[in-house]
TrEMBL record:
The keyword Transmembrane helix applies. It comes from Heracleum sosnowskyi. GO terms for biological process: coumarin biosynthetic process; lipid metabolic process. Keywords: Heme, Iron, Membrane, Metal-binding, Monooxygenase, Oxidoreductase, Transmembrane, Transmembrane helix. This is Cytochrome P450, family 704, subfamily A, polypeptide 2. PANTHER family: CYTOCHROME P450. Its cofactor is heme. Belongs to the cytochrome P450 family. Pfam families: p450 (PF00067). Heme binds at C452. One of its GO terms (molecular function) is oxidoreductase activity, acting on paired donors, with incorporation or reduction of molecular oxygen. The chain crosses the membrane at residues 6-29. CDD domains: CYP86A.
Amino acid sequence: MDFLSIFTFVQTLLLLLLIACSVLVVRIYSGKSVRSKKYYPVAGTLFGLAVHWNRLHDYLGEVVKRRGTFRLLDVDHSEIYTTDVRIIEHILKTNFEKYPKGQHNHDIETELFGQGIFSVNGAKWRQQRKLASHEFSTRVLRDFSCKIFRKKAANLVTTVSEFCTASKNFDVHDLLMKFTLDSIFKVGFGVDLGSLEGSSRATSFIKAFDDSNALTFHRHIDPFWKLKRFLNLGSEASLKKNIEIIQDFVQKLITKKREQTEKRINFSDKEDILSRFLVESKKDPEMNDQYLRDIILNFMIAGKDTTGNTLSWFLYVLCRNPLIQEKLVQEINTVVGDQGNSATADEFLAAITDEVLEKMHYLHAALTETLRLFPAVPLDGRCADTDDILPDGYKLKKGDSVYYLAYAMGRNHEIWGEDAEDFRPERWLVDGSFKPESPFKFISFHAGPRICLGKDFAYRQMKIVSIALLHYFRFILADDERNKNVTYRTMMTLQIKEGLHLRAYARPI
């Protein structure tokens, strides 16, 4: 090819790129009522978020603090971002049926979430919600899960003890994510994954799981993700490979569990969630292996990321607030009493009954305060199914998305007062007893008809492991470069970036 041909080819390519960009700009700004005062003020386009992607939640918080509820323009719709409690109640409760997940979000999340409860609407959502609500309310599952949490917490204590004895720094975030993964696999599938013990099969699964989360979330600012998926290029090729690893892993577990249940006559002793769903699938032919896989994966996403991340942030703020860490230890010693002198972690944790957990008001407040500042899902939203007028009088069009900023809300002075950015568990206590806030103000567990079914489940798990760790160890931040600027990895959940490196010291027992 001669120089002239190359020059002509480059000219043609640049022209096509210019035309594509022009079409994109026209589609972004046309039909969006940009200058109309009836609609929220525009603060840019969705693609502008790419510049601030690594600190997305702080950036959105800064914009909403300056401008109030605002709009970002996308190719075929507007996206509204808010911390207004009235708007959140409007979309999640008052007008629940008018604000489903939306096709835009469903398209983005479908590879990861499939037809699971986080992604679907209508009849499938109601079916899964009803079945899950029943299962989570059973005493069998509650007792089984608590037994597993205690056992896995004892394993975690053993692991931390080894670092403590060797006077070594360790990544507590990595340990806690493995702990929660082991726990949810046992409760969800009845399988001992053994990731805390260094199982190699768990390592690739965890990486695929976390990378899929991040890659899926990044689609929100990638206008070409569908084209890349079609051509199997770049981030979409990586996502496809990771999803295959996840689905293959879970499918093998379902197949094995189905074979086991086929040989059983009496299902009255079913404990893990998968066994319980398999029993229900016999009554519903639509609940095939793929549907079951989607359902269980959604529960696993909720069980692993939310509690693992929250416990990591919890230990981070306790290291930053050593007096609060000691106050929690005092509460543990007071409530548990002489039972805390048990010889082994297993014996000590066996004494942590539901009655003990109910008395841990300060611990409950400290975990809740952690979720206020570091919500497991920092950003979530819904899509308008029809034109609507929101409580502040502004309009939005059918197809517009409305996102509520849980991370920014926790730092909002108008919602939580001038000390909103301070870690202060006492804000949740009245005369020493925990006092909850409106779920539309404290949105960490969602609100309305889709409020998190596993809220109590998560609190029990977090309390058990917190009691175990704080009873045996005092934690400080390791003298590590990575700890000098602890921040998050931008993904669907608020995961600590590059881990949290601590040093543990044994407490006298």
